[in-house]
Structure prediction request, 655 residues.
Amino acid sequence: MTSALLANISSDLFFIVFAGIACVFAVAVLLTSNIVRMAFYLVISLGATAGLFFLAGAEFVGAMQLMIYVGGTLVLLIFGVMLTAQSRFVNMRTHPRDWIMAIIVGGSLLMLLLTAAFRVPSWHEEQQVIAAASELEVADSKTATRLGLALSGVRVDKINADEQLKQGMSGYLLPFVIVSIHLLVVLIGAAYMARSKRMVRRTSEQAEDTTSS
Amino acid sequence: MAELINIRLGLEGSAFGSIAAAVIHALLLLHVVAVGALVFIWMERKIAGRIQDRLGPTRVGGKFGWLQTLADGLKLITKEDITPQNADKMLFKIAPYVSFAASYAAFLALPFADGWVANNVNSAVFFVLAVLGLEVFGVILAGYSSGSKWSLFGAIREAAQVVSYEVPLGLCVVVPVFLAGTMNLVTIGNMQAGYFTNWFVFHDIFTFGTFWIFFTCATASVNRAPFDLAEAESELVAGFHTEYSGLRWSFFFMAEYGSMFLVSGLGAILFFGGWHGPIPLMSILGLPESGVLGNYLANLAGCVNFMLKAVVGVTVMMWVRWTLPRLRIDQVITTCLKYCVPLASVCFIGAVGWQVLDLPSPSDWHLGTGPAYKVHEEWATHTNNSAASGADDRGPETTEQYQRESDQLLPPEPDDADKPLTGSSGSPRSLTATPLGQELSP
Prediction:
């Protein structure tokens, strides 16, 4: 009994540590004016969020968080900073007017998210359903397999839902594929545009050469 | 090992026990990274020497100069820790630790033998790749915050290179993952038990090609020659670590050698059977099934096996470094986007086609013990078993309903569920629900 209590306390402790790191460095992102330091604080904040996912046992989501947000976004951010920077260390000064706007926008978003989060019924009512779902042993992987099944339309966490609700569960595979093809098209388009500019200039230069000669 | 101690001492499940286990694992892995770096730097010196027709270190520590790295380390400790005037001091000081931490954290999910892993992460392959990709962040921070143009050049090159090479690396890693039907590295390793014909690298011609692309991309993603443009000492002084000195500088190198070992180990598990030797000597002797001690000995041999394979990988990387000239940045990107990505895609499609058409492969011979989902060590499955026994009171209709639902989606499962799954049946069958107790009963 006491050992279980201790284990609970230690997991709570780690939760507080990770959540604290995430919050403190999220605030630090706001307060610093140096862009690269902001990126660094953002990495720590997002990394701590990934730690929260790992703590909750959602390893796949945690690794996804690391890969996409911490890895990809920040490398892109740094590219953006480095390609647009004029001076050596970029500093941003925020006007007080912008602060007010940002607080209004961010605060309303926070309120929206909080109210939405507290209204999700399955998060505080149907504990038994979640418990039953989390006790199912699915092949080799506890979390990733479920995500894959949900992608193709089998919701392990909604096993006890009524039949009418189940017919609406179509899976996320089609939207996922549509989004990824959309992204691919955007990437190819971007590459094509970056390339075509150079091609056009070269052909116009060649045209000038031929006219001058 | 820590769990073994915990079970023996009756500390299993308590907060003290789990924290002690975590500390023991962390310390063991720290030794893998740090002592590994010591050995690898000495190896690098010796190999470089031999390739260039000289002796390399010969004096420190008696024969073969095997204490050379320790002397280097002492020298590095005594060096002054300099921070340039132009630097962003905080980022400059913290960057080496970011690199090192990323390289070290990836080891948390790397198994060294059957069940010998700090944390048996379900999607371990993905975790290792994600964390390994973070190492570049330390390099970018170092290059940017040094306030030196050489460092900045090196960092930008590194960023471009690593971001590009993650694409073919990911494509290559997917191939063994779908052959095994799981992202769990322990299971992937166990699927290749038996003789070397069961290794994924010999599964078909496409997986064989995939391994070489994987190795090329892994070399590039850990920033080793001929892809070491970020430090290109002939053009950029020393690249991203130009301004670093002393112990901070050595942290970058510990991170580099750690990552080399990591990707070599990952390649060994994904393609070369991990801790399973070419001939399953331990299974022939019957050690894994002969109680705790035999099991431990078998795993110890497996661990040595795994380490040997990883060290061979690292040695090949060194051999390549001292043989091939450094590529130009445009050649590096061309190699990635024009050769590695298309080749990896072709190998991926080819391997999928091989699997779908069920073409013959050496793993069909089922030589040796055959692939298995089992983790043989008792203590490694101990916590899982206790979780499963706690789940006994779940409603029977829940499981049935779930299985019915999954059966609608997936092809009907043959009734040989007890038989270890063969290498050619990796794909959809592993998604089906199997009670955990059945899988793990040793």
Q: What stands out?
A: The mean pLDDT of chain A is 72. Chain A touches chain B through 48 residues (CB under 8 Å). The domain at 1-93 of chain A is CATH 1.20.120.1200 (Four Helix Bundle (Hemerythrin (Met), subunit A)).
